[in-house]
Amino acid sequence: MTEWVSVSSKAIRKIGYEASSSRMFIDFEDSHPLYTFCGVPEAVFREFINSGSVGRYYHQCIKNRYQC
Question: Which of 11, 40, 55, 60 could form a disulfide with 24 if both were Cys (CB 3.0 to 4.6 A apart)?
Answer without folding.
Answer: 40
